[in-house]
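Hi U.,

Before I forget, here's the chain from the pilot set. I'm dumping it here mostly so it's searchable later in email.
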Amino acid sequence: MLKLVKHHGHPRRPSIAITPDISTPTPDAPFVKYDVKAAYADAVLRAGGLPFILPYTEDRALIDQYLDRVSGLLITGGAFDIPPEAYGETARANLGQLKPSRTNFEMAVLRIALQRKLPVLGICGGMQLLNVAYGGTLVQDICTEISGAKPHEQKHDRTQPHHPIEVTEHSLLAECIGGKGQLMVNSTHHQAVKGVGTGLIASAHSPDGVVEAIEFQGKDHFVLGVQWHPELMVDTVPPNLGIYKSFVHRARDRRH
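Structure:
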């Protein structure tokens, strides 16, 4: 049984690295800002982790030092797309805004974290990046590329569900949420996984066939990507907190 190190009378929390978004300079706001929704950090805290935000760098040595100090990596989502060149395609109609500096940093951190077998959780765009890191491809725009697909960008309160997903039996995701079957999720994306990356499996789908979760095939390594935002639904659909709890639990096993 794992013996937890106590700090001031409490079990020491595993450190979780969170990747932030980055602003685009404008005349009214010329200084670049890092930005991360509080819900990510709040979910990590509620799950028993200690969240840290990672500033961008191109220096491999600095990335190594980041990851020396944490026990898990959370790749967040955002209102931007991954460059199609990253998965061997060219831009098509309705491709959204690109943020190359963010994608380059997150991909570098992600690949090193995977090499180290750190627990990894990818949320929304983070799931898509995870798929690309494993050699997978993306649907650049659901509405124009998937016949019969339903809208996946909800307009109402994102703490409320938008559609159900079907979770695969015996999957890592099923373990996280307490069993297979249907789960209600929110939806804030216009891209999706197309070809699943080598070594990954799709472990949930929406009723229109869109891939809603991917995970590493081996249970010895916690690598999970979900297409929705469970951190926004930890109170409205409580099984979503189980995703963060399972992630933090696995990070605790590697705690620094």
